[in-house]
Amino acid sequence: MSSGYQKSVKVPPESVPRGPAHRGPWGWFRHGGWYLVLTLATAGLCAWVPFLHAARRLRTAALKRRTAIYAGLAVLMVVLLSATPTDAQGDPVGTAGDVLSTLTGALALPVMIVALIQQWSLRRTVFTAGRSRPITRTSPDPAADPAVAEILAARARREQARALAAEDPLMARELRIGRPDLARSYDDGGLVDLNSAPAAVIARVCELDPAAADAIVTARASHGSRFTTVDEILVLADIPLDAWDRIRDRAVLIAT
Which terminal residue of the chain, N or C, has fewer Cβ atoms less than 10 Å from its own Cβ? Predict the structure, then answer.
């Protein structure tokens, strides 16, 4: 009898990011496409609404600040539009009308473009969090399923946190991804930021000898700038080969 078997392990929904599972225009719209549509349709006036939605979902101060900035710009555009003299057809009239309408357009265009760029990556962060999918793995023993599921869930959280850090480093720092030594509420699945964490934390998370962790911190200090790849650190710090996989599994590199 074969010792292995195929079983679909259900990983907790809050831990697994996934790519677009939707198909068609309506699915795209529901999974964050409305961010872009709303901003385009209102020429940037309602660009603050998607940021408010994201701020309520992700609960970060950075997104709250963005919401306030875009809301303030929207108020300014409304004031300019209200102050623009127009004729019966709604076209601006006179020098004041031309100046104010030009100012409004000059403000609306960059607001809309910048908001769309930021929302493009933000919508993936918001709408891929908290979704589940079945993952098939080979397990030697049915009794081990809960432990396997827990490990897979932690791996998925680490991948989700890495993706978020790559898309929005400022948010990653605010969530303190890779810094288990600091107070935080975000679960990154057990990552450590090799660009900022102390040696003792790196040693604990990556199960390293203290000397190896100290070598990483020393290499970081002598490098003069933040690392961009884990392999770069492994080579410069002269880490033993048998520790490379553990470090790759747990490491994250926050860019800012």
Answer: N
For the chain, percent of residues with pLDDT exceeding 90: 42
Shared-domain flag, residues 112 and 159: no
Please answer whether residues 161 and 177 qualify as being in contact, where contact means their C-beta atoms are separated by less than 8 angstroms.
Answer: yes
Rg of the chain taking only CA atoms, in angstroms: 24
Residue 98 in domain: yes
pTM listed for this prediction: 0.47
Confirm if 179 and 197 have CB atoms less than 8 A apart.
yes
Cβ neighbours, 10 Å, residue 146: 9
- Say how far apart CA 94 and CA 87 lie, in whole Å: 10
163 and 222 Cβ atoms separated by less than 8 Å: no
Q: Give the C-alpha separation, 243 to 45, whole Å.
A: 52
Cα–Cα–Cα angle for 30, 37, 80, nearest 5°? Answer: 140
* Same domain assignment for residues 121 and 165: no
What residue numbers bound the domain in which 226 lies? 153-252
